[in-house]
Each structure stands twice: as structure tokens, then as C-alpha cells.
Amino acid sequence: MDIDTLVRLAQLVGAACFVLGLHLMNSPASARNGNLLSAGGMVVAVGATLVDLITRPGGVSGFGWAVIVIGFAIGGGLGLYTARTVKMTAMPQLVSLFNAVGGGAAALVAIDDFVRVAGSGQTATVSTTIFTVLDVVIGSVTFTGSLIASGKLQGLISGKPIIFPGSRILTIVLAILAVVATVVLVLGANGTFAIDGTVSVLVLALIIASACVFGVTMVLPIGGADMPVVISLLNAFTGTAVAMAGFVLVNPVLIISGALVGASGGILTKLMADAMNRSIINIMIGGFGGGEGTMGSAGGGATQVRSVSADDAAIQMAYASSVIIVPGYGLAVAQAQHACRELGELLESKGVDVKYAIHPVAGRMPGHMNVLLAEANVPYPLLKEMDDINPEFDRCDVALVVGANDVTNPAARRPGNPVSGMPILNVDHAKSIIVIKRSMGRGYAGIDNELYGNPKTGMLFADAKDGLNQLVAAVKAL
Amino acid sequence: MTDLLTQITIFVLAILVGFEVISKVPATLHTPLMSGANSIHGIVLVGGMIIAAGADNPLSYTLAFVAMVFGSANVVGGYVVTDRMLQMFKKKPAAPKPAAQA
What we know:
The complex is a heterodimer. By secondary structure, chain A is of the alpha/beta class. Helices cover 60% and strands 6% of the residues of chain A.
């Protein structure tokens, strides 16, 4: 067996480890081993590539090795440092950043291949040209789009939908430009007309430029609460770009890995969009009409709300037999996950059955709230998915809503308003409801939450962290 | 042409495997799943190595260098942060924090 076959077999082993690693992710108990297996597969695949480069006829130039080693040291160092220091609340922007660099790297690989073939005076085949252009377009859109998404999540760019005059026309023009340029390149590769190497590189540069701008104009108009969908979609894009890079380099392990990631991003995108009852297209076109509380109230008229003191709320919860805590993004913003866990433990020590109801879009990326609560040491069996917990609200004494808004609005069950049809947590089925909220401000959908006007609801007006701390103190004092 | 067909076959089958494996992952683990998938697309590092090895002019070296930095950050950072997240998922809190009684 020659070296080349061995290298390919080793890369196949790597790809198999990725699949098995993802498979082990289906339970929290085995997930960590799954990730380690996947990392092991990566070491095998990269190691095999190294062997391939060392043994290849002619070898690699000293400068080539320097690029590989120094590039790895710098990138790896940066990655390691960020991964070790990032706060769990900042996870969405980090994942978005990794999407950006992954997509960017995939685009660079195809660009290099294209420039080299063009420079050598040969013409690439039609299929290679198509894959190159797809890789470059998807990779570039992902690169700039993810950077913008990351900037929005980090607060460097306003999280509100940003729409400037003519942005939609610009997007359309860019798309047309990219398609025309692609057709030119493909026809050139086909030999329909002669295309000079330099010209084809310029045409590719045009495609890169329009894809980069397209990435920006695609993500700018999208509001903060739609971020779980955007991140998932960009994740799917990166995977696809990597798979396309695999086609360009004729490297099956890139194709397999890219396809796996594309599939995972695709599934998550669909789940997130379903959880908001919105189509992906609708989200891409822009937030709820600007997202700035411009919509009329769904219930009509000013609602009467009852406010409740921390002491009263504490008594209700401490003497309840079951409490369901409903955390939302407000909890993450206020960094209140530890206070939340403390309250939960305190109630449990008083014999109360405590569970956490997690809406699929709680937080800024899929599953974000679970990670935040896990970090605060909440045991994962207590974290319940929407479909599992919803029937339990009927039997629950107190539902405590912390920093969640639209996902608890009963108006979603009626047609004719911005949240209609969105799956919600049945908080209003609980015997009693306590909502910790700073003010009567509206959620992302820009409508009043009818839950707050419910006679069973008591509003505890406070910042999520303050409110929870008050409750903890009050329960202890009982 | 058969080569291309083989590649497309691999691509399509891998997507189907991905759908099958990933649709079983519970919502609790969606963030680590995405972060783990993120590390997997860091395999593009292999692409960076291949173009670095074939580079023979300043432009190629530059492109390969940036691709290497990007890909390595993606792989190393992705796996480390996923591991960091997953070790937090416990059935019971490891040690009841003193804060609970204090």
C-alpha cells in the first residue's frame, strides 16, 4: 500500500470520528467524549495531511513550511486564548467569529486555486469553476455576514435592525452582478469564448467584492432576537463553503466535514425559525417592521397590572409544591443566572419541586440558555424543553418569569398580531404567575404582553438580578 | 466525470448522515452542538496546508498564511470552547456552592 492510500484512509478515519463524535452529542452524559473523539479525528486528519506533504515528490519549500507552522501557531494561539477566556454570555459572538474565519479560510483556498490555474495559462474545467465560484461566494458572504452578526451581538454595532435607503436595491444589484460574473467565468471555462487569465481573476475579484458587501447588507437589517436563526444559517453556510473547497481541491474529508456542518446548521436554522413561527426568508428580509415598538397594542387599551412585593412573591413560592422558572434573554443580560440557581436551590431545600422551562429561542443562539444555566451549576435534568414542560404548567403552583417576554404572550394563540402562531410556553396555565421585569416595556415583537394583565399575574418590577436577589433574601427570611 | 460523480455522491450521503445524526441531539445541547460543528469545519485547515505547500509566489503565500491563521483559530478555539461548555453539564452540582447557605 502506498503512502497516498494510507493518507486517504487516515482522513477517512478522521471523518468517521466526526460523525461518531456528533452522534455522542445526543446525550449530555456522552457529549464531552464525543467532542474529544471529534478532536482526535481532527488530529488524525491533519497529521495525515502533514505526512502527505512531507512525502510528496519535490517536497514543500522552506517558506511553505514557515507559513504552515507560523500560521498555525498564531491562529491556534488566538483560538486557544479566546476559547479559554470568553464568557458564556458571549458564546454567540464567538461562534459567529469562528464561522467568519472558517468561511473566510474556505474562500481563500478556492481563490488561491483559481488564481494559480489562471496564472499558469490553463483553463479550469467547468465543474471546478462552478465549485470555486460557489465556495468564494458562500465563503465571502459568511465571512462579512458573521463579522457583522458578531459585532451586533458584542454591541459594537447596534442590535436593532439597520435599514438604509436603497439597501434592498443594492442587495439586488449585487446579486445580479455576482450571477453575471459567474456566467462569464463558466462560459469562459467552457470555451464558449476566450477569456484571458488576468481578466478572469478580475472577474473573480468582482464576485468577491459583491459577495462581501452582500454579507453586510444581509445581516445589518436583522434584529437581535432573530440572531439564533442568523447564526445557525451562517453556520450552515460555512459548512457548505468548506464542502465546496473540498470539491475544488478534490479532498473527500473536506467534503464530508463540510456536508455534516451544513446539515447541522440547516437543521438548527429550521428549528429556530419554527420556534418563532417565521420563515427564513421573512427573517432575512428584516425584523418586525423595524422592531421599535411601532406596532399597536394587541389587547387594545391600557391593561391593569398588579404589582407584587418580593416578600409576597417569596411566600407564594416557598409554600408552593411546584415552581417553574422561565428564564429569557433578560436574565442573561443581567448576568442573573447564578442568582437564579441560588433561588432554585433554596426553594428545593424547602421541598419545592423546581424546574426550568426553556423556550427554543431563549438567548441569542440555539440552546444558549441551557449553557448559561449549566454554567451556574443547574443540573441539566431540571432544564425542560418547551414540549415537555408545557403540559406541566397546568399542575404548577407558581410560574416565575425572568427576562422572558414574547415567548410567554398568550396573544400568540390568536391570529392577527405579530406573534400569532409562535409556539409559546403556557405560563398562563399556572395557578399563579410572578414576572420579574424592569418596566412595562415591550418585547422584540413590539406588542404588549397580555400575560401581564392576567389577574393571576403579579409583577415584581426590578432588574432580573436585583429581583432574584430580593427573592432569595425574602425566602431565607421566612 | 466519474470522479466528480463520486464526490457528489459523498457530499449527498454525508448530508443525509448529518441530518440523521444531528436531529437526535436534544435542545439542551444545541449550543455545544453548533460549537462542535464549528470546530469540524475547521478541517478547512487541511485546505490551508495544501495551498501553502503548493505556493510559489507572494500572493499565494499570503492567501495560504491567512487561511492557516483562520483555520487554526477555528479548530483550536472551537474544540477548546466546546469542551469547556460540555464539562459544565452535570446531573448534580459537583459541590453545593457555599453561596446557597451563606
